[in-house]
Inverse folding.
């Protein structure tokens, strides 16, 4: 199989969030059941010490993720490195292992590179806020980047390949500013979570084109404007295994200039929906905060069918073909600060 679209979707970042429901690492945190008063250690006994289930007071941590994707095809290596600071010594279910994090992040593919800075704040086990600023570089290969004068354009796989064959794609770079919130909860073996990401693009395009196709999200995207991505999960957690169902939605906030040709009754091609099963298995039994350079490798398989897409529900690609992602993720602690 020829891989013509070697990037993968940002929703895979939220895949890591699903893993974090029961195996938090660099940027995740779980909501553990509160221990009975007779067995829970007092906060004064915890201090700055760390154990396999207690986050160290401060640490230099990293995470690595390798992804293969189908429909559309893609491959990605994502790396992050930063300092994580525990906010409190509390053993309360809502406050244990809450943290602040700041670091650098990079995403590498044969066609698209992203590098930048990311900050996170998890004041409660059920809530995490995050923001990032990334420089994005399309290298001008693998049919990318292709921009358009308005939203009434064909950006199907077939059309993108034709544009690449004709040489109308080109290299481009710009900024992507992100802000998001994760809400999660776990009762017994059942977990639910919702991850919402808003992203503002500033991508100079040829001829001041207002939209371009972003293979990272598989979405027609404003060159100066906002996109929305949301992932909602219902999960069952049993030991090192997690299974469940995920719904994913993407939306572009297109400008009046971009939407003008589709205003007269045409359906804008700015929304996608997918749904399907999720499965993850952690390969080792080490603790989530174990003092190790290589920790908690986890294999994830996510299969989703397109419910809404301008080209993947039979228009250009058969609606029977699912979106598939296979992910290997691990993290580690480089130093205790």
């Amino acid at each position: 199989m020829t891989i013509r679209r070697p990037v993968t979707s940002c929703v895979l970042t939220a895949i890591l969030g699903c893993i974090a429901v029961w195996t938090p690492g660099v940027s995740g945190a779980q909501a553990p059941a509160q221990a009975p008063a007779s067995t829970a250690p007092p906060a004064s006994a915890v201090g700055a010490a760390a154990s396999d289930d207690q986050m160290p007071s401060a640490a230099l941590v990293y995470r690595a993720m390798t992804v293969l994707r189908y429909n559309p095809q893609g491959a990605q290596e994502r790396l992050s490195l930063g300092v994580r600071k525990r906010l409190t010594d509390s053993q309360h279910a809502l406050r244990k292992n809450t943290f602040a994090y700041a670091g650098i992040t990079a995403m590498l593919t044969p066609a698209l590179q992203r590098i930048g800075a990311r900050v996170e704040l998890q004041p409660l086990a059920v809530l995490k806020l995050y923001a990032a600023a990334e420089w994005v570089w399309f290298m001008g290969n693998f049919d990318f980047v292709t921009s358009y004068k308005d939203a009434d354009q064909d950006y199907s796989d077939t059309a993108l390949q034709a544009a690449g064959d004709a040489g109308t794609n080109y290299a481009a770079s710009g900024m992507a500013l992100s802000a998001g919130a994760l809400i999660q909860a776990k009762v017994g073996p059942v977990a639910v979570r919702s991850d919402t990401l808003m992203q503002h693009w500033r991508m100079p395009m040829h001829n001041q084109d207002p939209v371009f196709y972003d293979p990272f999200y598989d979405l027609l995207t404003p060159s100066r404007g906002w996109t929305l991505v949301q992932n909602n999960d219902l999960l069952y957690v049993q030991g090192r295994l997690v299974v469940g169902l995920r719904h994913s939605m993407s939306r572009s906030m297109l400008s009046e200039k971009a939407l003008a040709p589709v205003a007269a009754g045409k359906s804008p091609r700015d929304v996608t929906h997918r749904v399907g099963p999720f499965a993850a298995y952690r390969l080792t039994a080490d603790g989530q905060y174990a003092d190790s350079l290589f920790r908690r490798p986890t294999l994830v398989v996510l299969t989703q069918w397109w419910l809404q897409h301008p080209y993947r529900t039979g228009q250009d690609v058969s609606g029977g073909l699912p979106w598939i992602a296979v992910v290997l993720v691990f993290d580690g602690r480089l130093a205790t600060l």
In short: Helices lie at 11-20, 43-46, 157-166, 256-259. The first helix runs from residue 11 to 20. The longest strand covers residues 172-187. The chain has one domain: 11-33+52-336.
